[in-house]
Amino acid sequence: MIKIMGFFYIYLNPPTSMKSIFFLIVISFFSLRGFSQELKSSKSLASALSSSAKTHKPVFLVILPPGMVNPPVNSKANFKSGLDEKDVSDLVNENFIVYKTIMTDTSVRSIMRIGNINRYPAYIFLRENSEIFYSEFGNSTDKNKYLSMVQNALTAYKEKSISELEKDVEMNKGSISQLKKLIDARQKIGITNNADLIEQYVSNLTIGDFNKYENVLYILQAGPYVDGTAYKLAYTNRKLIDSLYRNESAQKRIAINRAIISNTMKAAVKDKNVNRAMAAANFERSTWSRDYRAGEKSYNNQMLWYYYTVKDTASYFRTAMYFYDNHYMNISADSIKRIEKKNLDRNLKNSFPEDLGKKIVSKEKMDSLLKLPGMKSVTKSVVGVSSPVSNYANELNNAAWNFYQTGTKNLNYLTKAMLWSRRSIELNPIGGYYDTLAHLLYRLGYFEEAIKTQEDAIEKSKLQGMNLVNLQAELKKMKARQI
């Protein structure tokens, strides 16, 4: 555990059934014990939406990070949430149908994806058709945060819904004002994929409009396709683009680049368009400027995701073997630790909203401020979730597992995956990685070694406090030769 600037950074190892998911949790000194206990929560999202349809009350969806609902009893930090205050919970219960859950709940996964939810606790307000109309995040001991949140949500509920704005656009084809209202509404609730809409938007602009800073910024924030018209027109004034990337905050620039890459890659997968995928991968490579090796790594990483997702296994195997051997297997453990420390610091720096980062002060300064008359302490906390691409052990484990999941019986591919798996364990000997190795050994025909390795996976996972059900079931299958 690394302590930096008063925050704890904790790695949560992925469970066996979710090998490709890795969480970077950022937690300030707080506990969610008793979180929202006064709220009358529905049993499921479906029942909450059903009640919403009957009562015409919107849904208040509370999503907590895993493992934070019932912290250890001996936890030194035990900050309550302002959401627990009676006047807050009464106001919520009066105006909303509540459903409280955790981020691993599959029923809310699509909502999290649509709203680009990656900071927790997340408070998401839904219409009865499950459409998001308002959202906030972060825990606070200040009840005023939640009183204000409820009022803002009630105000947003009265505004036109996304579906209504989409109908307006359909009825008023060519209306730039209607398109802008729709794009603005989607961005307001966290939807970053507005690539198709921005294509329509730019078709109504004049050439001179692309020489205006605010117009170009607006286009890029919509996440245009790299190979689309909107992106190409926005880049016609290179001097303006350079000025934009020089003047805007790092957080905003990163958000723009992520949206452009993500939207382009998703569209490439949808249409199985390898040229579009390459365009997105090339764009990501360009964001690394003079760090050519990191740029090449990012390019190949994007193409790997594309090939794997569209099930182009021949291209996937070929690219993966070069990629992981070149970027992950020919580097020392000490070098890996240095790289990961550097990338961890960068990820954490870019994980917080700019206004939050500006408010962090030293403990000594805080103690002196609290001694002033009328001053009181309010604890605010944010949990962020991201995928740290520099985590070598996790990446190697995922690559090995992906090879296994393709169903290949090619000895060369399986042997290569086994080597990657063994290296991931060398770097970080956790249960999930042993489970990957056990499955590869089993498919290679080393049954006894596979069983022993799966038993190691169970023992390691037991020490980590992980759920053992799936691991034990796999061990039983291995012993019965039923995999």
Structure characterization notes:
With 483 residues, the chain is of the alpha+beta class. It has three domains: 31-159, Glutaredoxin, CATH 3.40.30.10; 192-327, no CATH class; 392-479, Serine Threonine Protein Phosphatase 5, Tetratricopeptide repeat (Alpha Horseshoe), CATH 1.25.40.10. The protein contains 22 helices and eleven strands. It has helices spanning 45-55, 86-95, 109-114, 143-157, 162-171, 176-188, 195-202, 213-221, 229-234, 238-247, 250-271, 274-286, 292-309, 313-327, 333-349, 354-358, 363-370, 392-405, 411-427, 431-443, 447-464, 469-479, and strands at residues 2-4, 7-12, 23-27, 59-64, 97-102, 119-120, 122-126, 132-137, 139-140, 380-381, 383-384. The strands form four sheets. A four-stranded mixed beta sheet has the order 5-4-7-8, sandwiched between helices. Helix 12 packs antiparallel against helix 13 (292-309), helix 13 runs antiparallel to helix 14 (313-327) and helix 18 (392-405) packs antiparallel against helix 19. The longest helix has 22 residues, at 250-271.
Short description:
This protein is an alpha+beta fold and 483 residues long. It has 22 helices and eleven strands.
Distance from N terminus to C terminus (CA atoms, Å) equals: 37 Å
Count of discrete alpha- or pi-helical segments spanning 4 or more residues: 22
SS-based structural class?
alpha+beta
Strand content: 5-15%
Number of domains: 3
Instruction: Work out the number of β strands.
Output: 11
Overall morphology? globular
Rg from alpha-carbon coordinates: 25 Å
Spatially, the strands of the biggest sheet line up as 5-4-7-8
Helix share bin: 55-70%
Low-confidence stretches: 1-18, 20-36, 72-78, 386-390
The averaged pLDDT comes out at 85
Main sheet makeup: 4 strands, mixed
